[in-house]
Amino acid sequence: MTERSPVDMWFDPLCPWAWITSRWLLEVEQVRPIDITFNVMSLSVLNEGRDLPEQYQELMTRGWGPVRVCVAAAEAAGPQVLRDLYTALGTRIHLHGYELDRKLYTEALTEVGLDPALADAATSDAWDEALKASHNAGMKPVGTDVGTPVIHAPGPVAGEKVAFFGPVVTPAPKGEAAGKLWDGVLLVSGTPGFYELKRSRDIGPIFD
After folding, report:
1. What is the C-alpha to C-alpha distance for residues 33 and 186, in angstroms, rounded to an integer?
2. In DSSP terms, which residues pair with 35 in a beta bridge?
3. CA gap 70, 79 in Å, rounded
4. What mean pLDDT value characterizes the chain?
């Protein structure tokens, strides 16, 4: 049997681009020998103290809720619960247009078999230390001038990892197309001194 490699993704449930990347990674998991672990980062933590447009600042204020709930859920049931909880939250946020409120949290928590009372975490700072620790673990290798998605993956040298922001792609490739993109991402990210490939986005997120 081919040995499977661990891959970590850091997500904020708010981000539509991270959501699409996460759906791509789940496709990759079916066609390449990798196992995805989902971890929490926070755009609200990332943007603390920054001078932001008023509308985006309001979003960052509300953005504490879902990441706090994710961290509280992981502490209550183990980090493996984040895979299903992220799917439950993201489906509601990005596909069904839910607001970031208690209805969102209680429905998602209930769907994955967790105590809906964990929704209380959304308005509590009790989990902020753990949230920031998870956030920093994901962001430290890539820096703070990027957001989410962030991925940590096996590097070309055994025992070493590569970390990168992205890929930002829409819609999420499926099947072998997903695997080929993964192969390319690993190739460029494992090249010493490689930092960036980018072009202007001319379409918005496509959820399919």
Report:
1. 13
2. 6
3. 9
4. 96
DSSP 2: P
Q: How far apart are CA 138 and CA 147, in angstroms?
A: 10
Buried-state track 167-190, b at ≥16 Cβ within 10 A, e below 16? bbbbebbeeeebbebbeebbeebb
Read off the pLDDT of each residue in 24-30 and give the average, rounded to a whole number. 98
Residue carrying structure tokens 């994955």: 112
CA distances (Å), origin 158, targets 5, 125, 129, 141: 11, 39, 33, 18
**Nearest partner of 179 among 39, 38, 36, 34, judged by Cα:** 34
Measured CA to CA in angstroms, residue 34 lies from 2, 84, 93, 108, 206 at distances of: 10, 17, 27, 26, 25
Q: What is the pLDDT of residue 204?
A: 92
pLDDT in tens, 150-197: 999 999 988 899 999 999 999 999 999 999 999 999 999 999 999 999
Q: What is the average per-residue pLDDT within 196-205?
A: 91
Q: How far apart are CA 21 and CA 115, in angstroms?
A: 28
pLDDT of residue 159: 83
Q: What is the pTM of this model?
A: 0.95
Cα 10 to chain centroid distance, Å, stands at 4
Residue 141, C-beta contacts closer than 8 angstroms, at least 6 positions apart: 152, 161, 163
Distance between CA 133 and CA 137 in Å, rounded? 6
